[in-house]
Amino acid sequence: MDRLLWPTIEQEVRYYTATARAHRIEQDTSNSELFYVYLEDYIDFDRPLPYKENGGFERKLFKTDGLPNGGYTQQAVRILEIDEFKAIIEAGLSEKEEWPARNGETDSLEHGIGFEEDQAPFEELFSERTIVSQIVNRPFREAKFRQHIRRIYDRTCAFTGLRLINGKGRPEVEAAHIIPVERGGNDSIQNGIALSGTVHWMFDRGLLSISDNYDILTSRQLNYDVSHLLNRNMKATVPDDPSNTNEH
Questions:
Q1: What is the rounded distance in angstroms from the CA atom of residue 214 to the CA atom of residue 237?
Q2: pLDDT at 141
Q3: Is 76 exposed, middle or buried, given 0-12, 13-18 or 19+ CB atoms closer than 10 A?
Q4: Cα angle 172-189-218, degrees, rounded to a multiple of 5
Q5: Which of 78, 163, 174, 214 is buried most, with the most CB atoms less than 10 Å from its CB?
Q6: Hey, is 110 helix, strand or coil?
Q7: Could you tell me if 58 and 49 are in contact, meaning their C-beta atoms sit under 8 angstroms apart?
Q8: Rounded alpha-carbon distances, angstroms, from residue 153 to 36, 202, 242
Q9: Any alpha helices (H) in the chain, and if so which ranges?
Q10: Angle, nearest 10°, between helix axes 128-135 and 82-93?
Q11: Low-confidence residues in the chain, pLDDT < 50
């Protein structure tokens, strides 16, 4: 099974918050009853999905009277039916892009993730392979990552404090991966930061960086003082809770 949903518990309410693929499983060398699951293709949902939404996504989680199925809910790993998995993915990743794409950006969210009934025969539509192929699609993931980062940062550059919106409502700010995808970084919002175009360019080339304490770091390779462009305290402005993609 290579599909994995990421549930969390908040105030005794359970949520699905992301999806990822289980790349490999390794046994703990010090405890044969424990295993480590290594993930890839992680992506946050647009919002936390309560287990009970629309009557519940997983049929086995609830009894006929609507109450939670106690023993089943405590299982750390559960097998999902394909239609259940599809419903969760659709609900978690189908929000359209709020703002128009700029030139050069891939607008892959115009119709959400999309599982329209006329796309494929029923069996293929509900196959795990078809669903996974959509959520690992790079243009879709880049567009979804950009949507989440712009939202959580309120379309504001973390390094300059600029919040520029053009006449059509499109934000100038871009979404940057702190650890690049090609170097093993993922598409989690915790690996993202909102940056203005020029700052993003310098960030990608190592001329600007960020410390664990959110200090803005400048490279010795910079041949021009850009401190006047940056926040006066040389601190990046980051969200209070970068895990909450539902902040608008």
A1: 8
A2: 93
A3: exposed
A4: 65
A5: 174
A6: coil
A7: no
A8: 32, 19, 9
A9: 70-73, 82-93, 122-125, 128-135, 138-152, 197-204
A10: 20
A11: 1, 9-11, 111, 114-125, 245-248
Closest CA to 79 of 21, 2, 12: 2
pTM summary value: 0.80
**What pLDDT shows up at residue 91?**
93
The tokens describing 62, both together, are 């609830």
User: What's the one-letter identity of residue 140?
Assistant: F
- Counted residue by residue, the chain has a size of 248
Structure-block tokens of residue 242: 């970068």
Strands 4-10, 13-28: pairing is antiparallel
**Who contacts 34 (Cβ-Cβ below 8 Å, separation ≥6)?**
27, 28
Sequence-distant (6+) residues with CB within 8 A of 200 are 174, 176
Note the maximum CA span of the chain.
69
